[in-house]
Amino acid sequence: MPSNSNISWPLSDILQATGGKLLTGKPSTGFAGISTDSRQIAPGECFLCLKGDTHDGHTFISTVVQRGIQGVIADNAAVDQNLLARLDQDGIACIAVEDTLTALGDLAAFLRQCSGLSVMALTGSNGKTTTRTMITHVLDRRFKVLSPFGNFNNLVGVPLTLLRIEPEHEWAVLELGMNSPGEIRRLGEICSADIGLITNIGPAHLEGLGSLEGIMEAKGEIIETISANGTMIFNADDPLVMRLTKRTHCQTVLFGQTPAATIRASSLKPDPHGVSFRLHVPQGERQIRLPIPGIFNVSNALAAAAMGTCLQIALDDIQAALESFTPVTARLNVLELPGDVHLIDDTYNANPASVNAAISTLKGISGGKRSIAVLGDMLELGQAAAGLHREIGCKAAKSGLDKLFVTGKFAGDVEQGARECGMAAKNIIYGSKEEIFKHLEQIVTPGDWILVKGSRGMRMETLVQALKQKQGVGEKTS
To answer: How far is 112 from 9, CA to CA, in rounded Å?
Structure first.
């Protein structure tokens, strides 16, 4: 059995965890770690060959052999006699498995069970990364916490995070994402969380899930993986989330603005750079000043407070953590550019709920100044995409935005929705990101507030970078 560290892996444990077959090498072999990255692998480690969208790790075996690896985990179908002869000659262990992606998850699950680590896992349609980061910030007040690099929330990222377990880690805070049914269940099996959390359920990944009902069912898979001794935390303000509470077989904690919530917010007051609210928890109450804009972020903060409350973290520490929270990169970051221009960078990703929230935030914090939205396509919405983009255009018009720039395949649908809901055609401009940038160069004036948002695949951050460079590098983050 390995220690709760990613430093040492006996070959016998890899075989036990994966059910793999040893084709070359000695049973007594040990490894300094497990890596899926041929560029970063170190001597003495074992290389697990993953197949990605653009690369197949099996094609890099010769490269990693030259870097002094001690073992290879490969798909049965990819192992041939020439490869085995080469590995055997070099004294390198070869473990053959049915599927290396499954093996990666099995290894992570094995290490998680062998460790003394406790795990909380969260899922939802919006706000997962911000909520996960807030929770980590709260738990850091009392525990040594393992948290993912960036957005490691899929069948590769979650296992890779767990393979970083070190002896000092007491809690892991994991984010579970998905594109299709069954993914949350598999991730839940891998991480075996003690505490689960569902932030919200909205129209994201409709292409793979078909409907809001399908999304609810997929998110609800996390409940199945929480033990009877565990806890599920639910957003009491979300009707679809609340439907899932009937499936729980463990302790339940509710957060939200509703009086029925155990962890509750009242007296919400937004301003251009944050939100103030009254936090109510069983231990007492505190006035909180959250230093990030957007009313919806109060829900994320309540989820973090609920997690802190479950672990009996002092209310003073919860308050201090929330009030010192730093916004996650490209998630509603307000940049103050020279010339009194405010740029809201919310380019990490987009779905209908998050775009609606971003538009509301733009209008709410612009303080009567000119508000401009630059929107790229929302992806993975399937057959509902055109209609949902029209709804976003309508939202922009009804919110009273002064200018709307749109780019992408569904730009015409956004324009149609905006015009149908009363926005003047002269205030709607669509084209490529380059064309939009040139237009913005000509019209931006002091006092303007500009929101830039779109799905990850639209790479709207390139427009943010262009605007920052045009305005100069002296901007600061609010």
So the answer is: 13
What CA–CA distance (Å, rounded) separates 354 from 180? 20
Residue 3's pLDDT is 41
Q: Which amino acid is at 339?
A: G
Fold of 9-102: 3.40.1390
Q: Which helix (H) or strand (E) holds 302?
A: helix 297-310
CATH number 3.40.1190.10 given to 115-323: yes
What's the pLDDT at 471?
Answer: 58
Kind and range of the H or E element at 465? helix 461-471
Cβ atoms of residues 474 and 336 within 8 Å: no
Q: pTM of the entire structure? A: 0.85
* Residues paired with 263 in a beta bridge: 255
Task: Please provide the DSSP assignment of 212-229 as one string.
Answer: HHHHHHHHTHHHHTS-TT
Which H or E run contains 356? helix 352-365
Q: Which of 178, 165, 48 is nearest to 116 (CA)?
A: 165
Q: For position 328, what pLDDT does the model report? A: 81
The CATH architecture annotation of domain 333-471 reads Alpha-Beta Complex (3.90)
pLDDT < 70 stretches in the chain = 1-7, 205, 471-478
Q: What are phi and psi of 8, to 5 degrees?
A: -130, 125
Beta bridge partners of 448: none
What does each C-alpha distance from 29 to 69, 114, 407 come to in angstroms? 12, 20, 55
Provide the percentage of residues in the chain whose pLDDT is more than 70: 97
**Domains of the chain by residue range:** 9-102, 115-323, 333-471
Q: How many CB atoms lie within 10 A of CB 102?
A: 15
Q: What local confidence, expressed as pLDDT, does residue 434 receive?
A: 96
Query: Alpha-carbon distance 272 to 362, whole Å?
Result: 9
- What is the DSSP secondary structure assignment for residue 376, as one 8-state letter? P
